Amino acid sequence: MATKSPRLFVLRHAHSSWALPGQRDHQRVLDERGRRDAERLADELKDEAIEIDSVLCSTAARARETFEIAKPAFARIGKTTFTDDLYAFGPEAYVAAIEAETDASTILVVGHNPMIEDFALSLVGTDSKAYQKLREGLPTCGFAEFACEDGFATMAKGGASLSRLLLPREMA
Length: 172
Fold this sequence. Notes:
Layout: E1 7-12, H1 32-45, E2 51-58, H2 61-70, E3 76-83, H3 85-88, H4 91-99, E4 106-111, H5 115-123, H6 129-135, E5 143-147, H7 152-159, E6 161-166
Parallel strand pairs: 1-4, 2-3, 2-4
Antiparallel strand pairs: 1-5, 5-6
Helix pairs in contact: 1-2, 4-5, 5-7
């Protein structure tokens, strides 16, 4: 039986409301547009029977809410880890979190800009069309799928290829 190359799914949290007086940034939730975009993403993915071995999600309310809305679109969700590292630290925290998932062949990461966009850019070679497309930005609720032919260990050195990029404005 042939084994599939590892796949990485990167999801920027959906559009959120501004913080209310006295509310911390970490507590901000999705606004109506964000919920609608996350539902449209789930509708776009639901027939694909994607199985996720491991989810790495920021602890921020808007990231968790985005994940909860998108979650039913996946055929199977394995281990789910909520971590402050994806909220508070840079793209290297995303790399470290993924490299720690040694038993996973499909990983979904739900995080924030600018870190998640910088992380996604680091996955592909700078002279690639994928890099140019990603440089246009990963908007809220943007979803990118990467194939990591040589495994997750080489992905952060430009060793991944962008399989697809779903943007909210392009979803029905």
